[in-house]
Specification:
The complex is a heterodimer of chains A (about 325) and B (about 240). By secondary structure, chain A is α/β, with parallel strands linked by helices. Chain A contains 8 helices and 15 strands. Chain A folds into 2 domains: about 10-185 and about 320-330, Dihydroxyacetone kinase, domain 1 (Rossmann fold), CATH 3.40.50.10440; about 185-315, Hypothetical Protein Tm841, Chain: A,domain 3 (2-Layer Sandwich). Helices cover about 30% and strands about 25% of the residues of chain A. In chain A, the strands form 3 sheets. In chain A, strands 1-2-5-3-6-7 form a 6-stranded mixed sheet, with helices on both faces. In chain A, strands 10-9-8-13-11-12 form a 6-stranded mixed sheet. Chain B has helices spanning about 25-55, 60-75, 80-95, 100-115, 125-140, 150-165, 170-190, 215-230, 235-240, and strands at about 25, 120. The chains are: A alpha/beta (about 325), B mainly alpha (about 240).
Chain lengths: ~325, ~240
């Protein structure tokens, strides 16, 4: 596998240096311990929002640090959760006295490391609340698994919770709105090709030329079923059906539709997916009132996409529309 | 605590057929050094196990953690207790391993250290307490039970075997050997299981036929604990000092 890298051991550090220089108007970086904070952190009296997790999902999470979204992101090694130390340091760096919200994707490593960091931060007198994101409907039976995974819906939680914090909501209210988004968003993904972790010599899994994997997570971990490649519209229908029946989404709902690329699929294909998803939703009387198309929660160079549907109301819509200025999302300023 | 039979710290009764009646700080240090050597050797093998049913970095992460603790061992106080050595290991693993293994092993060794606080030598009863506390710490964090296809499938049989060996009057070294043997069997027994925790749980029946990498690393660590108290002591210290 060809990669545009130097020493595999330096992938994350070198990328963060580039990110820091490219976006010095928006962020500051601490290199040891490694975390990214918005340039004006800590903001006095504002709830701080920290997220993080393994690298390889860019722009998640560093690309969402800035005004109106995250106060800090903590990148771990590729596909490996950061340890508690940098999470604690980031929490301290963004604590403006109003408490800190941790937004954590539901993966065992992320949950355990953030939990440990939250314990340490609490012991230092910082009020920490944690919201665990689990929007992935591909995991069927949560009783006998580690539970549904946190995937692309995380971006929507970070944006909307970030807007709530920016307008001055308290810690309880920001945590509540984050929980609300998580409870109303559902996601399902498909992989056309696997990805290769920089320090590994082989792909994380193998797909034949004519095979796709439905229901993948964001680390190349397998999903619900492996099937033969189909036209885009058929794949979209497969992804949307379990999403729509899960909440369930109903005739008359207003929704935000996110079509997210996994890193190796061109935008032209993502718009084909988006087009079909809107068709299906419209047929069912569900109105797409907000939309987002692009690579927001990736899995290295994996080809594929995920579809997320968020049931909106006036509050969530207005928080979505609120100004945001980050490396990967910018509007309204 | 039993009598202070091993103040002669680098040489823990390797000549006794029944093994050392107690172990001490030197054993604790050797345990870590041996573990680091084994994990460095088995790094790729653990990565492969993890790639089959996880994300392929367990060997990478464990190797990084144990390599990080090696230079810190040199800075230990001359009168450091076994518990303080394990605490150093725990905090290092928590801050360097990442993934799920970092907090799980870190908590295990932190609780193990707490169970032997103040003791300079460890007899069979103390080792049973150490292993039990480690296992309980992992359960506390990870909430896994036997049969979930996790490191608990190696730890719990190891604790049970240690308890039984101690009840039968085994020496410290024999307690560790019993634990190591049971952990090895426990790791092997994860192969036919469906995983209920961690990333492998997303595979459903596709996890069947693959050994759990965390159970395997537990087996390596407990084998290193036994080896560090047994006949191979001279070799190990010779190689690492």
């Amino acid at each position: 596998m060809k990669k545009l890298i130097n020493d595999p051991k330096n992938v994350v550090n070198e990328a963060v240096v580039g990110f820091e220089v490219a976006h010095s108007d928006i962020v500051r970086v601490s290199h040891d311990p490694l975390f990214i904070v918005r340039a004006d952190a800590p903001v006095r009296g504002k709830v701080g929002i920290v997220s993080g997790g393994g690298s390889g999902h860019e722009p998640l999470h560093g690309g969402f640090v800035g005004v109106g979204m995250l106060d800090a992101a903590v990148p771990g090694p590729v596909f490996t959760s950061p340890t508690p130390d940098p999470i604690l340091a980031a929490t301290q760096a963004v604590d403006g006295g109003a408490g800190v919200l941790h937004i954590v994707k539901n993966y065992t490593g992320d949950v355990l490391n953030f939990e440990t960091a939250a314990d340490l931060a609490s012991a230092e007198g910082i009020d920490v609340r944690t919201v665990v994101i689990n929007d992935d409907v591909a995991v069927k039976d949560s009783l006998y698994t580690a539970g549904r995974r946190g995937v692309a819906g995380t971006v929507l939680v970070e944006k909307i919770a970030g807007a709530a914090a920016e307008r001055g909501d308290g810690l309880d209210a920001v945590a509540a709105v984050a929980e609300k988004v998580n409870s109303r968003v559902r996601t399902m993904g498909v992989a056309l090709t696997p990805c290769v972790v920089p320090h590994a010599s082989e792909p994380s899994f193998v797909l034949a030329n004519d095979e796709i994997e439905i229901g993948i997570g964001i680390h190349g971990e397998p999903g619900r079923e492996r099937i033969k490649l189909e036209p885009a519209d058929a794949i979209v229908d497969r992804l949307l059906a379990p999403i729509l029946e899960d909440l369930p989404f109903e005739n008359g709902d207003d929704v935000l539709l996110l079509v997210n690329g996994m890193g190796g699929t061109p935008l032209v294909e993502l718009y084909i997916v988006f087009r079909r998803a809107v068709e299906v939703l419209t047929e069912q009387g569900i109105k797409v009132t907000r939309s987002l198309v692009g690579n927001y929660t990736t899995s290295l160079e994996m080809a594929g996409a995920s579809i997320s549907v968020l049931k909106l109301d006036d509050e969530l819509t207005s928080l979505w529309d609120a100004p945001v200025q980050t490396a990967a999302l910018r509007w309204g300023r | 605590m039993s009598t202070d039979a091993s103040t002669d710290t680098g040489h823990t009764n390797a000549d006794r057929p029944d093994g050392a009646p107690t172990v001490d700080t030197a054993w604790t240090v050797r345990w870590i050094q041996t573990s680091a050597a084994v994990l460095a050797t088995e790094r790729a093998a653990l990565n492969t196990l993890d790639r089959d049913i996880g994300d392929g970095d367990h060997g990478e992460n464990m190797d990084r953690g144990f390599q990080a603790v090696l230079p810190k061992l040199a800075g230990l106080a001359a009168d450091a207790s076994p518990g303080s050595v394990l605490k150093l290991l725990a905090t290092t693993l928590i801050s360097t391993v990442g993934g799920a293994a970092g907090p799980l092993y870190g908590t295990a060794f932190l609780k193990a250290a707490g169970a032997i606080t103040g003791a300079d030598t460890l007899d069979g009863a103390a080792l049973v307490a150490l292993l039990t506390a480690a296992r309980d710490g992992i359960v506390l964090r990870g909430k896994a039970a036997v049969g979930d296809k996790t490191m608990i499938d190696a730890w719990t049989p190891a604790v049970d075997a240690a308890v039984a060996a101690h009840a039968a009057g085994a020496s410290a070294a024999a307690v560790l050997t019993a634990a190591a043997d049971a952990a090895a069997q426990g790791a092997q027994k994860t192969e036919p299981l469906v995983a209920h925790k961690g990333r492998a749980s997303y595979l459903g029946e596709r996890a069947i036929g693959h050994r759990d990498p965390g159970a395997q690393s537990t087996s390596f660590l407990l084998q290193a604990a036994a080896d560090s108290a047994g006949d191979s002591v001279a070799d190990v210290t010779g190689a690492t000092e």
